[in-house]
Design brief:
The protein is globular. Helix 1 packs parallel to helix 5, helix 2 runs antiparallel to helix 5 and helix 3 crosses helix 5. The chain has one domain. The chain is 77% helix and 0% strand. The protein is mainly α.
């Protein structure tokens, strides 16, 4: 299976989970990753800092060089964030 097809399946799964507000499927995606808490905090801090800047090229270069695991963490983060932002 190609990376593009796998990515599409992950994206579809994320959208379904967002609609269902069920974190169990997302937890399964990240619980097995080989990263520690500091890695995740550093990734999210970098992501938030670059997201707030006006330099799209800098963000795109950073994002394009992330590992598959880092991309998974960011996607799960965005789903959780979206759910919490729209709770009220």
């Amino acid at each position: 299976m190609s990376d593009a097809i796998q990515q599409e399946q992950i994206d579809q799964g994320v959208m379904e989970t967002l609609r269902e507000r069920d974190h169990s499927a997302l937890a399964q995606q990240v619980n097995h990753l080989a990263c520690n808490h500091n890695d995740i905090i550093e990734l999210l801090a970098h992501y938030m800092a670059l997201s707030e800047q006006d330099n799209d090229e800098l963000f795109d270069d950073w994002y394009d060089n992330l590992s598959k695991e880092q991309l998974t963490v960011l996607k799960v983060f965005e789903v959780y964030r979206g759910q919490y932002e729209h709770q009220n």
